[in-house]
Amino acid sequence: MDRRNFLRNTGFVAAGSLFVPAFMKPLEAMALDELSLYKNLVVVQLSGGNDGLNTVVPHGNDIYYQKRRSIAIKPEEVLKLNDMQGLNPNMKALQEIYDQGWMTIINDVGYPNPDRSHFRSMDIWQTGSDSNQFLSTGWIGRYLDSNCQTCKFPYTAIEVDDSLSLALKGQSKKGIALKDPASLFRNTNDPFFKAMLQSEKEHLDEDNLGYLYKTMIETQSSASYIQNTSKIYQSKSIYPASGFANQLKTVSKFISSGLKTRVYYVSLSGFDTHVNQINQQGNLLKQYSEGMAAFLKDLKTNNKLDDTLVITFSEFGRRVEQNASNGTDHGTANNMFIFGGKLKKQGIFNDAPNLSDLDTGDLKYQLDFRQVYGTILDKWLDVNNADILNKKFNTLDFI
Amino acid sequence: MSTKDNFIKVKHLYNRAGFGISYSNLQKLSKKNIHKVIDGLLEEPKEDDSLKLVDESEEKRQLLVQAGLYAKKDLNDEEKKMRQEIIRMQNEISKDLNIAFISKMINTEHPLREKMTLFWHGHFACRSNNPMYAQQLNNIQRKHGLGSFKTLLVEVSKSPAMLNYLNNQQNKKGKPNENFARELMELFTLGRGKYSEQDIKESARAFTGWSYDKDGTFIFRKNQHDEGTKTFFGKVGNFEGENIIDIILEKPETAEFIARKAYKFFVNDTPDETHVKELASHFYNSKYDISELMKKMFSADWFYNSENVGTKIKSPAEFLVGLSREFFVTYNKPTVLIQLQSSLGQYLFNPPNVAGWPGGQSWIDSSSLMLRMRIPSLVLNDGEIDFSGKADPEDEAVIALSRAGTNNANASAKPKSYVNANANWPKFLSTLPRGLTPLALTEFLLQPRLNDKITNMVSDNKGLRSTAVEITSMPEYQLC
């Protein structure tokens, strides 16, 4: 069945009008033809502090081999990208992606006065704050708050998880967390839940109670929209069997079925490799790379790669010198990856980390992570980055 | 004042100053003057009520072993194992400490004291990998939670948990670390914009040498202390840490900052500045007596105004504790309480940062709200919400049984959902007066005023138990 017919034929629009209040109306009015023009951002978070130097290996630098006697990746194993840098051998799946020109590596991304606590540094990355500033909203949340043309629907940002990260929480608007659209749909169609929403217009003006009902209504209408839009789509691509790949598969399903969501958020954790790093990080990088490669190829097959930008970050990199337990401790600046079908600068974006000019054993950052966010906000999500980041950041030309 | 009015007032008071109230206790207290009820809440326990989960001597022994292992350059396999084992055990104990704190809130007979501990837990937000330090700080917040703010502030500032969290261990003469001094003023006392960067620099020097020794006792390291002259808020002197705290407390802005924060926690997300000023000047004039501040707040007429009743979103801790207290819930697998805290966004002892949990509407997003609405049925009813509204015949039988004094009807164990908790229904039902209607139970359990929809939904209900599950699953139950 044609998707547009299907949308019109399901009870969604009719049922929606029963409880959908005025602020939700644009949903019904939206032109289905806009669907194909939609640009998406997918944020991939590597939690725990991924060791960037064993991910993109500076095989051309002797200092790397001196500082990491037992955990350095041997030159002959590195998947060389140029004379200086190459990928960890567990990232073989990404070699092809890189060769296609769908990948950019940005070296040494960080921020001034870096914090080495996981929680705090993740907080800084998710809120886009300075290191001595505490924000209670996330950068994607504030994008939702900005009420721009492209961010007005409650399902504008989706995190494929059971609970919502700070990154997606704004002051008045928040993203939606869901692992499985069908189960969210079932829950919001529970008779009790529906009964609570019957004739619930009276509360919508009241402060906190109104906010609770507004959240319920948006959850219900988003769940219906997501379920009805995506349920007919069947991916033909094969994904590896991992939780991470499954998250990406869900995202691909949403993107390929034409969901009007702008931002997706997924994460992979376990990167806090203080002890016996080689195997642990190797397994994770393998999962990451195989999942990402399958995802990007799937998007390509569905003609969505040009409309999709994927970024990967971790809350910090690790110290240049290894520790006594064949692992690495918390560090500072780290690399970020950008993927997409229309990258302006493909391959390695800037100079490799300078291992001879360290800040008490840690890499110095070349680029502020908010320049990367700012570039995406300005050039991909079509908002003014100063409105979201509280000050203007210079953009970069990777897109 | 009629008992009916007092009933509503006391219920509101106990929702804010505690974690709700049982019907029987509410009936009893409604007969008293509200000021007597407030005094009762402020009463100190007769016995030491600190958390004693972490065995300090055992913990100190481990700390020494750990310090020894960290000092060593090359560890053999056995030592590596030992180090990992210590870390694993610390994690386990930290979880137990979390459960001990939430269990204390659930079971306490001094609800305001625990509520204050929770308030200060968020105000002096801190993370520590070391459960002994975390327990010390929690006990400081309990012991002085209703006492002198100055003592509380000094004790918190000297606790190893906070010294470590805000890097004061690295704050040394000639190499000051300003983290503690900054947060002291920005988050603990004055608030952003009430001090200059120079004030931070100078006060950081005054706190040099504030440290703790190997077994977690505060120590003033004189050789690391900067004894030079400092200029702080225009005053010049040879200041040490405690002088700085005194100068900060001389500023009425500190009383106002704390009063506003308490107002937002106990009264309303949106502060009424007239009320805040009223509280602040009383607090300041009482020389920062926290009991005086709270008494003034709970005695104020405006505290009971309709805009302040049933309008605050419960924090996850308030929600979980309130539900568990009301229905005498036991958790057969208490770690589920940690899972729930974490999924709802308030993992105690693990605040997002030193600014604490932002609170208010930030607690609620689609997934946390859906989960909140599911939890009562999972905890109280092993799964499904009984929405049919049909008569619940076991209620009457159970009431009768518990009235007869044989309080063991709970013995009939049913297969449990993953939450694996038991509500003590006989005990709960025995707190209710004979003949209480489902509608009256609804009025009791919900703080927001009932509307037609809810009235209609429960008016056909016959069972109290099914009504209770239904009511606690409503969005209205998220408010207090």
What key phrases describe this protein's structure?
heterodimer; A: 399 residues; alpha/beta; nine-stranded mixed sheet; 14 helices; globular; disordered N terminus; B: 480 residues; two-stranded antiparallel ribbon; 6 strands; 56% helix
Task: Please outline what is shown here.
The complex is a heterodimer of chains A (399) and B (480). Chain A contains 14 helices and twelve strands.
Topology:
The complex is a heterodimer of chains A (399) and B (480).
Chain A lengths: L2 H7 L2 H8 L6 H4 L10 E8 L8 E2 L4 H6 L11 E2 L5 E2 L4 H8 L3 E8 L7 H10 L11 H7 L11 E3 L16 E2 L3 H8 L2 H7 L10 H23 L12 H14 L6 E7 L7 H25 L6 E7 L19 E7 L6 E2 L18 E2 H11 L5 H5 L10
Parallel strand pairs in A: 1-8, 1-9, 5-11, 5-12, 6-7, 6-8
Antiparallel strand pairs in A: 2-4, 3-4, 5-10, 9-10
Chain B lengths: L2 H15 L5 H8 L3 H9 L13 H16 L5 H31 L3 H13 L7 H13 L5 H9 L2 H6 L13 H11 L7 H10 L3 E3 L5 E3 L9 E3 L2 E3 L3 H10 L1 H15 L6 H13 L4 H10 L16 H11 L3 E2 L3 H10 L21 H16 L11 H11 L17 E2 L2 H6 L7 H8 L6 H8 L4 H9 L8
Antiparallel strand pairs in B: 1-2, 3-4, 5-6
Helix pairs in contact in B: 1-2, 1-3, 3-15, 4-5, 5-16, 6-7, 10-11, 13-14, 14-15, 21-23
Helix content of chain B: 55-70%
Work out the number of β strands of chain A: 12
Question: How would a crystallographer describe the biggest sheet of chain B?
Answer: 2 strands, antiparallel
Give the strand order of the largest sheet of chain B, numbering strands 1, 2, ... along the chain. Answer: 1-2
The Cα radius of gyration of chain A reads 22 Å
- pLDDT average of chain B, as an integer? 90
Order of helices and strands of chain B: HHHHHHHHHHHEEEEHHHHHEHHHEHHHH
Portion in beta strands of chain A: 5-15%
Could you explain the architecture of this structure?
The complex is a heterodimer of chains A (399) and B (480). Chain A has 399 residues and is an alpha/beta fold. Helix content of chain A is 36%, strand content 13%. Chain A has helices at residues 3-9, 12-19, 26-29, 62-67, 92-99, 118-127, 139-145, 181-188, 191-197, 208-230, 243-256, 277-301, 369-379, 385-389, and strands at 40-47, 56-57, 79-80, 86-87, 103-110, 157-159, 176-177, 263-269, 308-314, 334-340, 347-348, 367-368. In chain A, the strands form 2 sheets. In chain A, strands 1, 5, 6, 7, 8, 9, 10, 11 and 12 form a 9-stranded mixed beta sheet that branches. Chain A has a 3-stranded antiparallel beta sheet with strand order 2-4-3, with no helix packed on it. Residues 1-36 of chain A have low confidence and may be disordered. With 480 residues, chain B is mainly α. Helices cover 56% and strands 3% of the residues of chain B. Chain B has 23 helices and 6 strands. Chain B is globular and about 75 Å long. Residues 384-417 of chain B have low confidence and may be disordered. Classes of the chains: A alpha/beta (399), B mainly alpha (480). At the A-B interface, α6, β7, α8, α9 and α10 of A face α18 of B.
